[in-house]
Amino acid sequence: MLGNKKPGAPTAPVSKPVDTIDTLIGQKTLFKGDVEFTGGLRVDGKVNGNIIARDESNSTLVLSEMSEVEGNISVPHVIVNGTVKGNIKSTAHIELQPNSRIVGDVHYKGVEMQLGASINGNLVCDTSISSDVPDSSSSDSTPNQGL
């Protein structure tokens, strides 16, 4: 069932997100290419490329309701209120606000989804301690029998 944890199951420590925005991609900006950052990044415009946090512990990405991203995202803390066409890997926490539209898979440790948010893809809970996304093509994976 949802919300039931197995007794004695190890929980990974979740890092605290940064509370400052160091970089802004403005509403009238189209950025073509990959974006690598540390700290906080807010996107109000369009990004055609991947968004990657160099700091794998507490970097934060904020996508406003005007934002559009065509590419994959790999950031520990993600807040989405815009459109993403690509996969998202959050090694900590992802918040999907009411205007978020995601076409792609979402890998997460913790997720918060508000009414109105939509995902056209898979939600994959990463309960392992490591931040690696499991390879779905491996033969030793066991299917989720609880759904």
Describe the overall structure:
The chain is mainly β and 147 residues long. It has one domain. The chain is 0% helix and 39% strand. It is built from no helices and 18 strands. The chain has a six-stranded parallel beta sheet with strand order 1-4-7-10-13-16, with no helix packed on it. A six-stranded parallel beta sheet has the order 2-5-8-11-14-17, with no helix packed on it. The N and C termini lie close together (8 Å). The C terminus is likely disordered.
Question: Could you give the topology of this structure?
Answer:
Blueprint: E1 23-25, E2 30-32, E3 35-37, E4 40-43, E5 46-48, E6 51-53, E7 60-63, E8 68-70, E9 73-74, E10 77-80, E11 83-85, E12 88-89, E13 93-96, E14 101-103, E15 106-108, E16 110-113, E17 118-120, E18 123-125
Parallel strand pairs: 1-4, 2-5, 3-6, 4-7, 5-8, 6-9, 7-10, 8-11, 9-12, 10-13, 11-14, 12-15, 13-16, 14-17, 15-18
Count structural domains: 1
- DSSP helix fraction: under 10%
Radius of gyration: 15 Å
Summarize the helix and strand pattern as letters. EEEEEEEEEEEEEEEEEE
Helical segment tally?
0
In which order are the strands of the major sheet placed?
1-4-7-10-13-16
Poorly predicted ranges (pLDDT <50, ≥5 residues)?
A: 7-12, 129-147
Mean pLDDT: 83
Q: What is the count of β-strands?
A: 18
Beta percentage is 35-45%
Distance between the amino and carboxyl termini = 8 Å
Which structural class matches the secondary elements?
mainly beta
